[in-house]
Design brief:
There is one protein chain. This protein is α/β, with parallel strands linked by helices. The chain folds into two domains: 189 residues, Rossmann fold; 150 residues, Sandwich (Jelly Rolls). The chain has ten helices and 17 strands. It has a six-stranded mixed beta sheet, with helices on both faces. Helix 1 packs antiparallel against helix 10, helix 2 packs antiparallel against helix 4 and helix 5 packs parallel to helix 6. The N terminus is likely disordered. It comes from Kitasatospora aureofaciens. This is Alpha-1-antitrypsin. Keywords: Membrane, Signal, Transmembrane, Transmembrane helix.
Length: 442
């Protein structure tokens, strides 16, 4: 039995090896993958920072989450979150409505304070502070958001506010949606995620508005476990900070007035069906590599796409990259490559730049980001969706050996692949006949 299986195994291995070898010889494929760029290994400069805002207003006493009060569910969830905190996360807690028990609205609407400072967490002290909370007062969400932004401080890494509440702000002004937009407009890499413990339409719409304004998420909490799992997830996401912090930029609608970008990572915001343009100077012998990711931080209408184009200063398209989707996703991305030495998109230049090439003026390439996105009914359109653009300039890659014959271009590539398949088929047929002959002899 075993002697019948081994030739089959050898045959499969031999065919695979011959096919790969034949294709490699004919196509001139490289024997190894491209090496990563030197700048890709930079480490984050800052620890992830998270500030959790907990609503401790009077309505948190209501017992409607599987028979438990809203405040007890929140406290138990926070205990589990604190126990599971990653060691590198700077974590803090701010309250609203926790200290003023009176009926003076002016005083009650100032009731927000830092319960536990953002930093390295003493878990015993943090859980003890949470256990002392008793539902008391009003709901100044807007003021608490401003306070949390101050708690987190300034920096380049993305920081996160997690808001847990059971009602809408009853202290405006400031309106919490306006505060969220104000924070987003400052370009301080601040994301606000909201979790609602009550399910009325006004509260839900306000929490969605806050989250959308900063590129965060909204969760309608129905069970204690859902609250615990979601907060843990958000804290874990804060660890995915940028290894290269994006530089804030603002694209324009025309290439002439567009900002000039050098290799790096950039952040911007793009509205629905908008065009954002940026300029990149490319030297002779260089290859431009660019990619764009747009965060779909709100509900989209079906059938959408994002387009990244490289054009000349006069508007002639050089190359494009597209990505499309039809359902709700988190991010949609695309990219492109273009070399100054081949306007049709084929890269044929030598990796080195000659002396005469150094004297050639830079080519101005306009990167155009556009989208065919549309919001679902009732979704806010401002601010624009978060956009991240990566730009790199590398030595133009040499063409494979045989480029002079046109290898790799159009029908010749198809012919080469056909010959490789024919070669593999002939070898397979010869081996099959040999096996049959051996079998008959035995």
């Amino acid at each position: 039995m075993n002697t019948g299986r081994r030739p089959k195994t050898r045959l499969g291995s031999l065919l695979a090896a011959l096919a790969i070898t034949g294709a490699s010889l004919l196509l001139g494929l490289p024997a190894h993958a491209d090496e990563p760029s030197a700048g890709a290994s930079a480490a984050p400069k800052e620890n992830p920072r998270v500030d959790l805002i907990l609503d401790v207003s009077g309505s948190m006493n209501i017992a409607d989450i599987q028979g438990k009060s809203r405040i007890s569910v929140a406290q138990n969830s926070l205990n589990e979150v604190i126990d599971a905190l990653p060691g590198e996360t700077d974590f803090g807690i701010r309250t609203l409505g926790a200290t003023y028990p009176g009926n003076d609205k002016t005083a009650g609407c100032q009731d927000t304070k830092q319960l536990f400072p953002v930093g390295k967490t003493n878990k015993v002290e943090a859980k003890t502070a949470v256990a002392t909370l008793r539902p008391t007062g009003w709901t100044p969400i807007g003021l608490a958001l401003r306070g949390a932004a101050q708690d987190l401080g300034k920096g380049d890494a993305t920081r996160r506010i997690v808001l847990i509440t059971d009602g809408e702000d009853d202290c405006a002004p400031p309106d919490p949606c306006d505060v969220a937009r104000e924070l987003a407009a400052q370009g301080i890499h601040l994301v606000v995620d909201t979790l609602g413990l009550a399910h009325d339409d006004k509260t839900t719409q306000q929490l969605i508005c806050i989250a959308n304004a900063t590129g965060g998420s909204f969760t309608d909490v129905r069970t204690p476990q859902q609250l615990t799992d979601k907060v843990k997830q958000l804290v874990d996401q804060s660890n995915d900070t940028y290894t290269i912090n994006p530089v804030r930029t603002t694209g324009t609608d025309k290439c002439e007035s567009a900002p000039v970008l050098t290799p790096g990572v950039y952040s911007d915001r793009e509205k629905f069906s908008e065009h954002r343009v940026y300029k990149v100077p490319v030297k002779s012998g260089q290859e431009l590599r660019a990619s764009v990711s747009v965060g779909l931080d709100r509900a989209m209408a079906r059938d959408y796409g994002v387009l990244l184009q490289a054009t000349s200063a006069t508007g002639q398209e050089l190359v494009r990259g597209t990505d499309a989707g039809s359902t709700r996703t988190d991010v949609i991305s695309t990219g492109l490559r273009w070399s100054t030495d081949d306007s049709k998109g084929y890269v044929t230049a030598s990796p080195t730049t000659s002396a005469k090439d150094k004297d050639k003026p830079d080519t101005t390439v306009c990167l155009v980001v556009s989208n065919s996105l549309a919001p679902q009914a009732g979704v806010h359109t401002d601010p624009g969706m978060p956009l991240e653009l990566t730009v790199d300039l590398a030595s133009a890659s040499p063409a494979p050996e045989g480029a002079a014959m046109g290898l790799g271009r159009g029908w010749i590539l198809l012919l080469t692949l056909t010959l490789a398949g024919l070669f593999s088929g002939l070898v397979a047929g010869w081996i099959a006949r040999w096996r049959i002959a051996v079998w008959r002899e035995n």
